[in-house]
């Protein structure tokens, strides 16, 4: 226990300014996501671009791929979230629950992502990066891939995948001496639970409003 605490203190002392910027931008981005605010994307881009660099530096190649994917998906999500009805200017994409078919697609997407990432990371571990942790890095990365895809589509279930990502990333970054980032994911874990509750409420409101409209018609 003493050794873990000492590592925490030492690594916090050596945390670079880039990591601080990335962490605070990431927390702000998740807060905006919880509020369904379009600023989630431009603020999030600051976080993801920095973490591409930091992840490569720490031999977390899966996480580096995730943050590159985040960057691309942020541009995609930004465009989707900005779509409006021509006449009413109402949002075209609303927070909704996944159907059973969509749940199956999500699980398949995660499984395929995990298998591919694990295979690639095992190769990189043997050839270039003996310090890599393939199974953990692949799990954190595959859940994040799934969560980001669903967030762009405003699916409530994206938060379940974010919770898994955060749980996996807390110890993963700690052992790689990115302790401030480990604390960051701990904060994101609580924000993910809050975001899940908020989006569940919004999805229920949208469902009820849709049902009322159908009754009138």
3D architecture notes:
This protein is mostly helical. It has helices at residues 2-13, 17-34, 40-57, 61-81, 100-127, 134-152, 158-175, 179-216. It has one domain (2-83, 100-216). It has eight helices and no strands. α2 (17-34) runs parallel beside α8, α6 packs antiparallel against α7 (158-175) and α7 (158-175) packs antiparallel against α8. The longest helix has 38 residues, at 179-216. The protein is globular and about 55 Å long. The mean pLDDT is 85.
Strand content: under 5%
Structural class: mainly alpha
Helix content: over 70%
Number of domains: 1
Number of separate helices: 8
| End-to-end gap | 64 Å
Question: Which sheet architecture does the biggest sheet show?
Answer: none
Oligomer: single chain
Low-confidence stretches: none
Q: Please state the average pLDDT score.
A: 85
Shape summary? globular
The number of distinct β-strands equals: 0
What integer value in Å does the Rg equal? Answer: 19 Å
N-to-C series of helices and strands: HHHHHHHH
Provide a brief overview of the structure:
The chain has one domain.
Show the helix and strand layout.
Blueprint: H1 2-13, H2 17-34, H3 40-57, H4 61-81, H5 100-127, H6 134-152, H7 158-175, H8 179-216
Helix pairs in contact: 2-3, 2-8, 3-4, 4-6, 5-6, 6-7, 7-8
């Amino acid at each position: 226990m003493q050794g873990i605490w000492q590592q925490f203190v030492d690594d916090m002392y050596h945390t670079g300014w880039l990591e601080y910027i990335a962490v605070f931008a990431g927390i702000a981005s998740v807060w905006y996501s919880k509020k369904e605010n379009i600023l989630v994307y431009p603020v999030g881009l600051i976080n993801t671009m920095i973490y591409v660099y930091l992840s490569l530096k720490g031999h977390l190649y899966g996480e580096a791929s995730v943050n590159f994917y985040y960057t691309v998906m942020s541009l995609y999500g930004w465009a989707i979230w900005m779509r409006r009805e021509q006449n009413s200017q109402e949002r075209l994409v609303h927070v909704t629950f996944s159907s059973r078919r969509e749940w199956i697609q999500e699980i398949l997407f995660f499984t395929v992502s995990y298998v591919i990432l694990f295979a690639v990371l095992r190769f990189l571990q043997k050839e270039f990066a003996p310090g890599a942790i393939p199974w953990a890095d692949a799990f954190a990365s595959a859940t994040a891939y799934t969560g980001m895809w669903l967030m762009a589509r405003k699916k409530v279930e994206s938060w379940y995948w974010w919770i898994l990502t955060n749980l996996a990333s807390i110890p993963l970054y700690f052992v790689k001496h990115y302790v401030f980032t480990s604390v960051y994911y701990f904060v994101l874990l609580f924000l993910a639970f809050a975001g899940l509750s908020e989006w569940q409420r919004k999805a229920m409101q949208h469902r009820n409003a849709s049902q009322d409209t159908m009754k009138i018609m």
